[in-house]
Structures are given as structure tokens and as C-alpha cells.
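Give me the fold.
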Amino acid sequence: MPAIEFTALPLPHYIRAGYSLAGPGRKHPERCAIGEFDLLVVAQGCLYIGEEDRQYEVAEGHALILRSDLHHYPTAGCTEADDAPAPGRTFRMQTFRIRVPQFSRLVQPAKMYEVLRQLVALERDSHLHWVRWEQQLLFQQVLMMLAAGADARSPRPGAVVADQAASWLRKHYRERLTAKDLGEALNFHPVYIARCMKRQFGCSPMEYLLQYRLDQAKLLLLQTDLPVGQIAQDVGFHQAAYFTACFVKNEGVTPREYRRRFLQNPGAAGLDPIPTTTGGGN
């Protein structure tokens, strides 16, 4: 059985997850050099997928990692409804902030002591690859415990409002929304919310919503074979023509051309292929 080998650091990182239910006859989309590794986990049924000259039947309780630099394609349609929770891919790496106080009182000192004890104990075997991996995972726990300090949990009130607004928009993006709806949901004046989001994210609530809808549409264009009109409806655009106009303004191509370019050309759709070693990628 082939294996994928990564050279760390940096460690492989999570980007996005999704959950898909494929009915009988549905197929996994054909894609080429998607630029990021795609982990598929099947909870029910079976997916029939080929990658270059290999073919896989990914049944319930099995997982398959699709490589970032190869062509993969469906070999058959599903014979029954398939549940596939799958950490997915996106089109740009989204950075995030980690706020760690320089000086703080530990919230869970006993837990911190134990994790540090484990780190020190692993040092004697740190020449082993799996030990260095485990040390990195433990170090992430250290950072999270430091960030849990009271000083790290006191963001500006405006930042809290902006984050709440973003979370609400992401939860309800499929619905018809207005600034008034957002204000009533958060119990703040829409103008104040807009000011907070502009300061936190550099855009208005409706601009944030539009970009999130387009990002979800791009996921569906590249991860499913759904018609463009249905994708528009699924992500909150109630007029296909308006969806196409917004997509062209944002991406410079129509949704159909975006999908076609990606399927035909490695590295298309705004993706930069990840350099790879034999059997995997860095």
C-alpha cells in the first residue's frame, strides 16, 4: 500500500472540512493537480475513485488521501447513498492570529506541568521522527494553555461584535439577509456593526457575506458536479445572473469557465501546486 511522506516543519495543516451525501449514480468530481491534499473519509456506502493508474474503492470505515499533484477521477457512480465527512480544500491559505500573553498566571498549572514533563521525557528519543511529531503536538497544547490566560481573553468590545457578526453571517449565508436582520440578531445598530467589521475585517457586513458566499460557491464548483444554477441557490444567490456577475467581478471568469480551467489545467483556479517529494508533498 503506497504511503505519503511529508518533510516537516512546517507540519501538514488543516484548511477546511465538509460533509457530503452522494445519492445513487453520483460520482466524485474529476480533478487534476488540486494543489492541496484532500482527505476523504467514508461513513456509509462506497466511493469509486482512480488516481493516475491506481483505482480505489473507498468503503465505509476507510479513508483515502488524494495527492496534490496528481490527476484523480471517478471510476463508477455510487450504488447507494454515501456519507463522506471530508476535511476539504480551499483556494487560499487563511492565516489566523494566535494571541499569547508574554506574562500571565496559568489557568491550568497542573496540566501545564504535565505537558512540559512529557516534552522533557521525549527529549531522549528526539532523534526519532514520530517523537518529534509528538513533541510538536504537545507544544501546540502549551501554546493553547498560555493563550487561555485571562490577559489573552480580553479583546476589544468592537472585535467581539465583529466576530459575532461574522459567525452569524456564516451560519445564515444561504438565507436572504439584510443589515437590519444582522442588527436585530446581535441587538446592535447596523451602523455600529458595520464600523466594527470594517475595523476588524476591512469590509462591510454585506461585503463579508458576498465574499463568503463566493468562497462556498467555489468549493461546490470544484468538489461537486452540481449545475451552476443550483450552486447559486445553495450559497444564497437567488438570481443566477447576479451570481454570475458577482463571480466574474471577483474572479475575472464565469463560474463555468472557472470550473473548466481547473479541470483542464494544473494549478488553475488560483491554486499553486505544492512541491512534492516521491510519494508525497512538502
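The first helix runs from residue 109 to 122.
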